[in-house]
Amino acid sequence: MSGKPKLHYFNGRGRMESIRWLLAAAGVEFEECFLETKDDLTKLQKDGSLMFQQVPMVEIDGMKMVQTRAILGYIAAKYNLYGKDLKERALIDMYVEAIIDLNELLMTHTFQPADKKEQHFATIVDKATNRYFPVYEKVLKDHGQDFLVGNRFSRADVQLLETLLMAEECKPDILAKFPLLQSFKARISNISTIKKFLQPGSQRKPPLQEKDVPKLMKIFH
């Protein structure tokens, strides 16, 4: 049996994408088992693999882990991406929770009804540029280090980069007023494991397209 983590999800971003990012950043190879039909999900549910009957699910270290935040926390701790002490971990958690809030907004944009899309887009831009990005810009300015916490690479850096790139897919000039975040994006993108993940042909998934939504609905509803 392979020692690689095995990821169970559909062949797309969703809530698994941050897990892919974190494993890739840690230099960990992983396998993926894609849900193609409703039956694939039902099989996992019936054989007891899904504690709360839902994916993402990651097989790692003899466990079948569910709940995205729990999985991310385990991977971060296992691969030393979670700060050097409790205070750093608390700071990383605060930064990450806000990143996840913004990530959720970005992730759900494709699923908005046509008449709500414009307002949803305006909400994304407003929250990104007025609530979230100014905080990270200030953090980088105040401590003058390459990374968000403790001048060492952590899950906060990985998850912020992922979300910055998603935000730019949504609005290419969204970082225009944030020079330190632009520098951060370039710097973190150049870390060898991340650089590899950003190359074509990696296990990073493309943005979800509207044409993909009906297929997902058939699996999950």
TrEMBL record:
It comes from Chloroceryle aenea (American pygmy kingfisher). PROSITE patterns: GST_CTER (PS50405), GST_NTER (PS50404). Coiled coil: none annotated. Residues 85-208 form the GST C-terminal domain. This is glutathione transferase. One of its GO terms (biological process) is xenobiotic metabolic process. Pfam families: GST_C_3, GST_N. InterPro entries: Glutathione-S-Trfase_C-like, Glutathione-S-Trfase_C_sf, Glutathione_S-Trfase, Glutathione_S-Trfase_N, GST_alpha, GST_C, GST_superfamily, Thioredoxin-like_sf. It comes from the Eukaryota. The gene is Gsta1. Belongs to the GST superfamily. Alpha family. Its EC number is 2.5.1.18. Keywords: Transferase. Residues 3-83 form the GST N-terminal domain. GO terms for molecular function: glutathione transferase activity.
